[in-house]
Amino acid sequence: MKYIVANWKANKTIKNVKEWLNEIRKTKIKVPKKVKVILCPSFLHLIIIKKELEAHPLSFNLELGAQNFSPYSAGTYTGEIAACMLSDLVEYVILGHSERRRYFKETDKEIKMKVIQALKHHIIPIVAFSKLNQVRLSVQGLKQEERKKVIFMYEPLKAISRQIGPIGVGRAAPLDQVVQMTKKIKKLFPKNKVLYGGSVKSHNIALYMTQPEIDGVVPGTASLNAREFIKLIKNAKTQA
Ligand code: PGA
């Protein structure tokens, strides 16, 4: 199974979301069974997208993920969204993205708490990392049965497209760097999937998707534009 996980970050109005879905629906793309396409919009858009997909299904199964949630259970945490609140809305959650670690000062300890919340509520955590130790800390102490559910996402900081702020230069990481890191992770955690994220576009997706060691990709910027996203899926499809 290969994964394409679209990370919309903090983008789009409700109108934009509907336009994006319409464009994707019109194109009737065929996605092979061995490719999973997961969309991670903001919390605000999740329920709208779920309802739209139920009312007007796409030509393929678009699964939903969150981009974050609270490290705590439901309760007296004003302004937070707890994992249990999302458990009937999403199947995945991106945790520990470098933008969250950097701009919101998320720590390895909090990320581990979120991984535990995700597993407790049957949401598959996609844990982002740029250093090997972040992977270890995110699953430390978990039983093998639980640990193997975690998907890791390698995001070398330099490779992320720059939108605002100092992260990233928008140049995708060289394939050998990604393969080397993936191999290291798989040596430590042979049962876990490892994805790559950082300036994945329609012109370079095949490079990563065709590598047997890499289980998929996480396009951010390229997923925002429906046409580019369709191209991206098509280019991945031919190779997957
Ligand atoms: P990008 O983002 O594709 O815009 O570089 C990837 C990510 O940060 O998830």
Structure description:
- This protein has 240 residues and is an alpha/beta fold.
- The protein is built from 11 helices and 8 strands.
- It has an 8-stranded parallel barrel with strand order 1-2-3-4-5-6-7-8, surrounded by 4 helices.
- Helix 1 (14-27) packs parallel to helix 2 (43-55).
- The longest helix has 14 residues, at 14-27.
- The N and C termini lie close together (9 Å).
- The model has no long low-confidence stretch (mean pLDDT 94).
- Bound molecules: 2-phosphoglycolic acid (PGA).
- The site of 2-phosphoglycolic acid has 13 residues, from helix 10.
- 2-phosphoglycolic acid binds next to helix 10.
SSE map:
Elements: E1 2-7, H1 14-27, E2 35-40, H2 43-55, E3 62-66, H3 83-86, E4 92-95, H4 98-103, H5 108-120, E5 124-129, H6 132-139, H7 144-147, E6 151-154, H8 175-188, E7 193-197, H9 205-209, E8 216-218, H10 221-224, H11 226-239
Parallel strand pairs: 1-2, 1-8, 2-3, 3-4, 4-5, 5-6, 6-7, 7-8
Helix pairs in contact: 1-2, 1-11, 5-6
The chain binds 2-phosphoglycolic acid.
